[in-house]
Amino acid sequence: MENWLYVFINLGAISIPFIAGFDKRLKFQNQWRFLFPAMLLTMLVFIPWDMLKTDLAVWGFNPKYLLGYYIGNLPVEEWMFFIAIPYACLFTYHSLNYLGKKDYFGKYADRITLVLAVFLLIVGLINTDRLYTSVTFVSTGGFLLFHRFVIRAAYMGRFYLMYLVTLIPFFIVNGLLTGSFIPEEVVFYDNTQNLGIRLGTIPVEDMVYGLLMLLMNVSWYEYLKSRFKPV
Questions:
Q1: 101-110 mean pLDDT
Q2: With 70 as the cut, is the pLDDT of residue 7 above it?
Q3: Which residues have CB under 8 Å from 136's CB, separation 6+?
Q4: Are strands 187-189 and 202-203 parallel, antiparallel or unpaired?
Q5: What single-letter DSSP state applies at residue 133?
Q6: DSSP conformation letters of 48-89
Q7: Residue 53, CA distances (Å) to 69, 73, 98, 106, 157 in order
Q8: What is the pLDDT of residues 130-157, one digit of tens each?
């Protein structure tokens, strides 16, 4: 059964949000027409990115924990990851917006975005010899600057709250994927291509990668909601 592990991790991540989304107060299913296109548009960026990094051996997947079916050079479980994690996090985003009317980080969002973007760009640009670090940090820093000066979205404070809340399940899911609590990693990394800084078993780059992926999902989700009247 260990070859089902990555599948079970994905199912564990999405199961509670999927069931809770049908709560009559939240009615998250009414947001699916914005959610699934947002996830698909984000996958159009991240799936090729994942394929390229896998081809370059920046990271790889342990066949011990996989079913053995691939689309391109990615296991089907990795494709599932880009559905399960965004779904769970966008459900969290929707729930926090519904349950909490106060935007706790709203008045600080511009400053947080600017400081974070500059920091990530500096770290990325001085580590151009580390592919995972440089591409992830520079891409995230650039996207944050795009938000700060072009999109100027009012939802950034709420995004940061969602990101902080989802760090708890992030450490569980990514911890399992990177070898916490299990004999071997599900996903392994070439440490010459990252900073070598780990939070437990998790490369620090994964936190930045996750931030970019979730922000892109939220950006498309909010854009689509603004263009089409919600149910």
A1: 92
A2: yes
A3: 124, 205, 208, 209, 212
A4: unpaired
A5: H
A6: HHHHHHHHTTSEEE-GGGS-S-EETTEEHHHHHHHHHHHHHH
A7: 19, 10, 37, 35, 31
A8: 999 999 999 999 999 999 999 999 999 9
CB 162 within 8 A of CB 93: yes
List Cα–Cα distances, 127 to 18, 130, 196, in angstroms.
39, 6, 12
Tokens standing for residue 205:
């780059």
Distance from CA of residue 95 to its chain's centroid?
17
Q: Which of 185, 204, 167 is nearest to 85 (CA)?
A: 167
Structure tokens at 168: 């708890």
19 pairs with which residues across the strands? none
**pLDDT value of position 170:** 95
| Whole-number Å distance between alpha carbons of 153 and 147 | 7
The HSE-up count of residue 46 (CA atoms within 13 Å, CB side) is: 25
Longest CA–CA separation in the chain, Å: 51
Does 36 have pLDDT greater than 60? yes
The kind and range of the H/E element at 221 are helix 204-227
pLDDT at 229: 64
The amino acid present at 40, given as its one-letter code, is L
